[in-house]
């Protein structure tokens, strides 16, 4: 897998973050909103065994896979409209997940062991409207202020080709490009292997691996249970929830490019060649 072995990783120079379910608790909000409406129309709740198939797949929460399972007794368009309205009501109440604020603020004063500044970018499948709704509370404003405006790549970014959402690597490669485009004079362009992707979803982790970046998987506890027996395959990007070809982009089992963490609390900066300048 690539030219960099498990023991030869360069120090990290860029951290690229997913958003939903990683930085903020919106995955629980998505689930709650869906189940509120399902109960209202007399359908059973969505369990994690099914939700796991939707996480990280653009448009899946209101697409064919969901509706073939849900079998709601009202027009699909009406259900989707009601769901979006309920989400917009709940999103402004979302909050950062444990360890997120400290990690992002720490990274603002972080360099690697070679003295290189550590940069950050956001790479989320959420569109601009959803992002705006999720970033209105004082708590979320603090964490998103860490990401420069030009280093936020969202799902409806016109630079991303249609149909190339996660698990394709495009969004992470675009996020890296936004960082490289804004480097100070004298800073060398950052390579993919000098990047660390943070993800909670399985397709998102696969996208990071396909981008040839190192990765940290921080799944929801319920998602972690579902994939407990396949963790090595998840970390290698080899679950294949959304087949897209390009098998050469995938990792190998136990290759050391990705790890799972229970949360973003007490992040091990030194494992990635990073240290604070404070």
UniProtKB/TrEMBL annotation:
Pfam families: Hydrolase. It comes from the Eukaryota. GO terms for molecular function: phosphatase activity. SUPFAM superfamilies: HAD-like. PANTHER family: 2-DEOXYGLUCOSE-6-PHOSPHATE PHOSPHATASE 2, SUPERFAMILY HYDROLASE, PUTATIVE-RELATED. This is HAD-like protein. It comes from Mollisia scopiformis (Conifer needle endophyte fungus).
């Amino acid at each position: 897998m690539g030219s960099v072995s498990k023991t030869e990783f360069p120090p990290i120079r860029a951290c690229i973050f997913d958003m939903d379910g990683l930085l903020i608790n919106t995955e629980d909000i998505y689930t709650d909103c869906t189940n509120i409406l399902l109960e209202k129309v007399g359908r059973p709740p969505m369990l994690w065994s099914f939700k796991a198939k939707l996480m990280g797949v653009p448009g899946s929460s209101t697409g064919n896979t969901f509706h073939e399972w849900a079998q709601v007794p009202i027009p699909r368009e009406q259900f989707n409209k009601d769901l979006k309205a309920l989400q917009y009501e709940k999103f402004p109440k979302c909050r950062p997940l444990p360890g997120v604020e400290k990690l992002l603020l720490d990274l603002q004063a972080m360099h690697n062991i070679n003295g290189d500044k550590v940069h950050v970018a956001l790479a989320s499948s959420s569109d601009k409207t959803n992002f705006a709704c999720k970033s209105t509370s004082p708590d979320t404003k603090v964490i998103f202020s860490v990401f420069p405006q030009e280093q936020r790549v969202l799902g409806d970014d016109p630079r991303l080709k249609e149909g190339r959402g996660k698990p394709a690597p495009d969004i992470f490669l675009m996020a890296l490009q936004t960082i490289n485009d804004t480097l100070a004079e004298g800073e060398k362009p950052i390579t993919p292997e000098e990047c660390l992707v943070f993800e909670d979803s399985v397709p998102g982790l696969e996208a990071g691996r396909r981008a040839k970046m190192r990765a940290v998987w921080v799944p929801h506890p319920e998602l972690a249970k579902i994939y407990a027996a396949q963790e090595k395959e998840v970390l290698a990007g080899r679950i294949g929830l959304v087949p897209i070809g390009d098998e050469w982009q995938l990792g190998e089992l136990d290759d050391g490019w990705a790890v799972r963490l229970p949360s973003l609390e007490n992040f091990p900066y030194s494992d990635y060649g990073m240290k604070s300048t404070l």
